[in-house]
Write a structure and sequence with these properties.
This protein is of the alpha+beta class and 353 residues long. The protein has 2 domains: 3-193, Ribonuclease H-like superfamily/Ribonuclease H (Nucleotidyltransferase, domain 5); 205-303, no CATH class. Helix content is 39%, strand content 25%. The protein is built from 11 helices and 12 strands. The chain has helices at 61-66, 71-77, 81-92, 105-115, 131-139, 148-154, 168-181, 184-187, 223-228, 230-233, 295-352; strands spanning 3-12, 28-37, 43-50, 96-100, 127-130, 192-193, 205-208, 213-220, 245-254, 257-264, 268-278, 284-292. A hairpin with a 4-residue loop joins β7 and β8 (213-220). The longest helix is centred in the last third of the chain and has 58 residues, at 295-352. The protein is extended. Bound molecules: zinc ion (ZN). Residues 237, 239-240, 242, 264, 266-267 line the site of zinc ion.
Length: 353
């Protein structure tokens, strides 16, 4: 049977801030908490494990403020990360999908696994439910992010005194309660992909959603390389997957976001976006989404394109102006210098006479 593993992590970070942080290991997991839900989202089990830290052996003040944890408890009750993680994976079972509040936990969990030399047993792509996103899709605009306690309050889920927030198991418990109470069937198709590991070679990931498609590229060294790659910059219809002719070619909305407009002979206007993201190993990857667009949106894109074009022209003009001015000033300075030399020569000549 397929289970949902709703989990939450508590982590610690360098007490000295970024300077004292270890590369690729900004957060050290100190607690794993999870509830297991059956297919009908009813709880069937729970898991809690404290981890004794080895990297950041002092609690960051913010962490000790919000969690109940202290170093002594972690040392006394915690186990090494590898052991805790093995226990967690065994408890998860065979068939499951992870559910988290927000998109950070799976990435940080894998960073910790890699740091301790563990192999990552998860499938590729690693799909999961970001319940914070699903909550927003159902009750908000799909973008606004609510904190866990806000959502708990909105859904009038009773907060139990012995279950305060910011304990891994309690946060997992409330996330599970939200999942149980939501009309999950309505948003169930909006699965998320964890980007810690990226596709390799031509095995890019294509995810199909009710109203859009998402393409996740492999890793590239730099943005320009990603944008020049045909597999990234081709636009494919989100309905029939046919390759499309572009009506407005790719242009930048900002250095990390590109947009274009294409036409499908069968489905009409298709708007595509490329988002450039940093990869774990310091390169970049591209996420391209495509959805059907109406005339109003097409007009908006066209206006935006003109606006960006104008901005670029102005920038270039300013640049030319600046360079011209610098050149003129240099010439003037050189001229003055030459004049000076000349007048000095003249003086010398006069003195000779
Ligand atoms: Zn089509």
């Amino acid at each position: 049977m397929m289970h949902y593993i709703v989990f939450d992590l508590e982590w610690n970070q360098s007490p000295k801030g970024k300077e004292g942080a270890v590369d690729h290991f900004p957060f050290e997991v100190i607690e794993i908490g999870a509830v297991k839900l059956d297919e009908n989202r009813h709880p069937v089990g729970e898991f809690r494990q404290l981890i004794s830290p080895t990297v950041y052996t002092q609690l960051h003040y913010k962490i000790s403020e919000v969690t109940h944890l202290d170093m002594e408890t972690l040392r006394r009750e915690g186990v090494p990360f590898e052991i805790g993680m093995e226990r967690f994976l065994t408890w998860c079972g065979e068939m499951y999908r992870f559910v988290t509040w927000g998109s950070m936990d799976l990435t940080e969990l894998q960073r910790n696994m890699v740091y301790y030399g563990m192999e990552i047993p998860f499938p590729m792509p690693l799909l999961y439910y970001d319940l914070q996103k699903l909550y927003s899709l159902q009750y908000r605009d799909g973008k606004e992010k609510l904190s866990l306690d806000q959502a708990v309050e909105e859904l009038q889920i009773p907060v139990e005194e012995e279950k305060p927030f910011h304990h891994a198991l309690d946060d997992a418990y409330y996330t599970g309660k939200i999942m149980e109470k939501m009309e999950f069937a309505l948003v169930k198709e909006f699965v998320s992909m964890d980007y810690y590991r990226l596709p390799e070679g031509d095995d890019e990931v294509i995810l199909t959603f009710p109203n859009y498609t998402k393409f996740v590229s492999r890793e590239f060294e730099v943005k320009e390389e990603a944008l020049a790659n045909k597999r990234v910059n081709d636009v494919i219809c989100c309905c029939c997957h046919r390759m499309l002719r572009k009506k407005i070619r790719w242009f930048a909305l900002n250095p990390k976001l590109y947009v274009c407009l294409a036409i499908c002979p069968e489905h009409g206007l298709v708007r595509s976006k490329i988002r450039i993201k940093k990869s774990e190993s310091g390169g970049v990857f591209a996420i391209r989404t495509s959805k059907l667009a109406d005339e109003a949106e097409a007009k908006l894109i066209s206006e935006k394109r003109n606006e960006m074009k104008q901005k670029r022209t102005e920038k270039n003009r300013e640049k030319r102006h600046r360079i011209g001015k610098q050149r003129a000033e240099r010439k003037k300075a050189e001229g003055q210098k030459a004049g000076q030399i000349k007048s000095e020569e003249k003086k010398a000549e006069e003195q000779k006479r």
